[in-house]
């Protein structure tokens, strides 16, 4: 299936995402990317972070895999304009490579990121267990089921492509005010809703894209708050992501998120990603701007 009520889904939507992540090379260390033809008024943070990682990764030996990235969103991006990516080679050592990537529009930075890549090595191995007693992805409502209950709350999300199958275990943040019970955790099953090529860098970029979709919502979940009229508006301020183990972004993973603190119109959110067999594949931390809006 490629269409649901006029919205691009499935492999067709994934192919569109792959086009967005396939940057044009404009120089030895420079690239250019575009935004989807249909999307929100500002460039989605996960998109610019994913594209920046594509740019950085294309200047590194493919045998070195990304293990972490740290980025700051400094200006809103214009989806109607191309985004230029300039990459700086900070260091190529015997085991690690470090790159700095800056995303620019109108010659001004909208996002900058440092990313580190490592050769494969053996060493100590442990991780905290996945949360117990979480229903599986086939046991929770699909996005289509969720969206059908709140058509008036959807806005642009009712028309943009959906390359990621997102299934909330609890109530999402775009329900009506008062319909969301407070919950200290937000848990979401995700996977790319189609097949990706085997390139590990591409899977890391797709996971980076997905990691910005629901993380900040865990701050609202603590208070039973919602997005939009009668609730809160927000924007990502920074984003950090650590890749722990091999994974495929087109296979189910659980995104277990919570917020340790919120104050001063900012909220801190952290998340762990687990494969369906319980391996921790990544950790994420983000701070975002959160402001109340009227009904």
Question: What is the strand and helix layout of this fold?
Answer:
Blueprint: E1 3-4, E2 7-8, H1 10-21, E3 24-27, E4 30-33, H2 45-57, E5 65-73, E6 83-92, E7 96-105, E8 108-118, H3 143-147, E9 164-168, E10 185-192, H4 200-211, H5 217-223, E11 232-243, E12 253-263, E13 266-275, E14 280-292
Antiparallel strand pairs: 1-2, 3-4, 4-6, 5-8, 5-11, 6-7, 7-8, 9-10, 10-12, 11-14, 12-13, 13-14
Helix pairs in contact: 2-4
What's the quick description here?
With 295 residues, the protein is of the alpha+beta class. The protein is built from five helices and 14 strands.
Explain the overall architecture.
The chain is an alpha+beta fold. It has five helices and 14 strands. It has helices at 10-21, 45-57, 143-147, 200-211, 217-223; strands at 3-4, 7-8, 24-27, 30-33, 65-73, 83-92, 96-105, 108-118, 164-168, 185-192, 232-243, 253-263, 266-275, 280-292. The strands form two sheets. A twelve-stranded antiparallel beta sheet has the order 3-4-6-7-8-5-11-14-13-12-10-9. The chain starts with a strand and ends with a strand. The mean pLDDT is 93. Residues 39-118 form the Acyl-CoA thioesterase-like N-terminal HotDog domain. InterPro entries: Acyl-CoA_hotdog, Acyl_CoA_thio, HotDog_dom_sf, TesB_ACOT8-like_N, TesB_C. This is Acyl-CoA thioesterase. Pfam families: 4HBT_3, Acyl_CoA_thio.
